[in-house]
C-alpha cells in the first residue's frame, strides 16, 4: 500500500521515500493505467536455452548481465526470451515483432536461419551476440576476454 500511495502522490508518504519509489518505478518501466507506452524503449534478446543449461552457463550469464546493465544505463528495458534454437521459427518471430515498442532485437548465441534473417532485415536494429553473419546483414558483437595479472 505504501508503494501505491507514493505512486499516486497520496499524503502520508515522506518526500525521500516517495522519490525513491518513483525512481525505482521509472527504472523498471512502470506506467500508470492508461498511460501510453513510450515508443521504441525495449530491446528484446533471444537467448538460446542451451546457453543457460549447458556447460557455458557462467559465460552466457555474464553476457546477459552485461546486456541488461547496458540497456538500463541507456534508459531501455531489456526483455530476455529463452528459445530452443531449432524451434525458433518465422511464426514465433512474426508474433513477437508485432510489438511497436521494440527499439531492437538481439540474438544471443543463435545463428539465424535464412528465413529468420530475411525477416530480421526488414525490422529495426538487429544485433547478433556471440555469433556472426557471414553475409554481413547484421551488426555482430562478441565478448572480449580480459586477463588480469596480479
Descriptive notes:
The chain is α/β, with parallel strands linked by helices and 150 residues long. It contains 6 helices and 5 strands; from the N terminus they run H-H-E-H-H-E-H-E-H-E-E. It is globular.
Q: What structural category do the secondary elements indicate?
A: alpha/beta
**How much strand?**
15-25%
* Radius of gyration, in angstroms, nearest whole number: 19 Å
Low-confidence parts, pLDDT < 50 over ≥5 residues? none
For the largest beta sheet, what order do the strands appear in spatially? 2-1-3-4-5
Largest sheet: 5 strands, parallel
Q: Helix and strand succession?
A: HHEHHEHEHEE
User: What is the helix content?
Assistant: 25-40%
Number of helices: 6
Strand segment tally: 5
Measured distance between first and last alpha carbons: 50 Å
Shape: globular
Mean pLDDT: 79
Amino acid at each position: 500500500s505504501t508503494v501505491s500511495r507514493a505512486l499516486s502522490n497520496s499524503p502520508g508518504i515522506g518526500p525521500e521515500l516517495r522519490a525513491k519509489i518513483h525512481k525505482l518505478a521509472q527504472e523498471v518501466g512502470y506506467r500508470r493505467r492508461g498511460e501510453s507506452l513510450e515508443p521504441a524503449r525495449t530491446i528484446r534478446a533471444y537467448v538460446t536455452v542451451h546457453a543457460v543449461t549447458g556447460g557455458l552457463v557462467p559465460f552466457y550469464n555474464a553476457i546477459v548481465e552485461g546486456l541488461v546493465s547496458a540497456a538500463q544505463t541507456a534508459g531501455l528495458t531489456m526483455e530476455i526470451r529463452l528459445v530452443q534454437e531449432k524451434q525458433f521459427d518465422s511464426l514465433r518471430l512474426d508474433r513477437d515483432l508485432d510489438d511497436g515498442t521494440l527499439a531492437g532485437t538481439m540474438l544471443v548465441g543463435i545463428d539465424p536461419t535464412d528465413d529468420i534473417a530475411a525477416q530480421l532485415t526488414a525490422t529495426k536494429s538487429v544485433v547478433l551476440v556471440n555469433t556472426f553473419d557471414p553475409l554481413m546483414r547484421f551488426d555482430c558483437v562478441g565478448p572480449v576476454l580480459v586477463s588480469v595479472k596480479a
